[in-house]
């Protein structure tokens, strides 16, 4: 993959999309380097970060790993997803949610999303439960929590595990409680585009000490203690350099989230009058606006790609999150799946505005207004 494929295209030079660091992160990294030890195993820095992150989300335990994908994978392994088990996943999400299902040699079963929140639809997930279902992965998509109460009910009723993918939702609340402290186990990412970053990195949070120990074991080669290998594992450790950055970013997370919410409200104000489906918040949710994706009206779906091009030509660096349901990828060809109509429809209509806490109010206003002008031509 080319580097620029990952980024919003046509980003003007005065717009910086990316993480925000101060001297604090640099000083923290310097202190770790100067200590002479930079790994989880030879310092206390990773444990400190874990403790602070657990406290922030309101969970008893947190286990730091090397990426969000590793966090999802470790959580799936810890709850006992094994070869041949079915795991219900949304068709409309980032591949990092579902790749780990394949790595456990389990079977991804795609379910549809709720048209309002774009998060996994609990009703469709329930329809796809079979005797082989081991787990369900609700995703807090674009920073808006999934309907966690409904998934907790499915867990009670069918005895399935809920592994929440909160990789886009650090600090988001469900019924006033931060995600990561609500579901039995949740996975976070600290990749550079997320609401806080360690460069690459991830975290699992849980209130269950047994699950936390399982995660630590999977992270550390399947070892319970030195040389005592009790299960299949990985090297998913985070370095102390990453944790040192994470400690500083965590202190700033609420501020970063406020900025993102502010940018989303600037976009909403600019686009409000147009015939678009803008992101909405459910009464149970407080979103951290990881990504601002809106939907074009259905009749414009065939023109979406040319509208995206048109927006870029007018200095609006848009992207498409996500361009297709995951089951269209050849990676999933071996698995039978039903079509997920809402996911298909959303993937055809979605347009994503740049969302980063690095964007200034002035830049957000310029982007929102320019987008509104271009879109008004197409919607006329
Ligand atoms: C970012 C992300 C992941 C994976 O995180 P990485 O740190 O990039 O491995 C998984 N799921 C979702 C929904 C994500 O946004």
Count the beta strands. Answer: 14
Q: How can the largest sheet be summarized?
A: 7 strands, mixed
The termini sit apart by 37 Å
- Compute the number of helices: 11
How much beta, percentage-wise?
A: 5-15%
**What is the average of the pLDDT values?**
96
Structural class: alpha/beta
Q: Which value, in Å, is the CA radius of gyration?
A: 21 Å
- Strands of the biggest beta sheet: in what spatial order? 1-9-8-5-4-2-3
The H-and-E topology, N to C, reads as HHEHEHEHEHEEEEEHEEHEEHHEH
Q: How would you sum up the global shape?
A: globular
**What are the bound molecules?**
pyridoxal-5'-phosphate
Specify the helix fraction band.
25-40%
Question: pLDDT below 50 for ≥5 consecutive residues: which ranges?
Answer: none
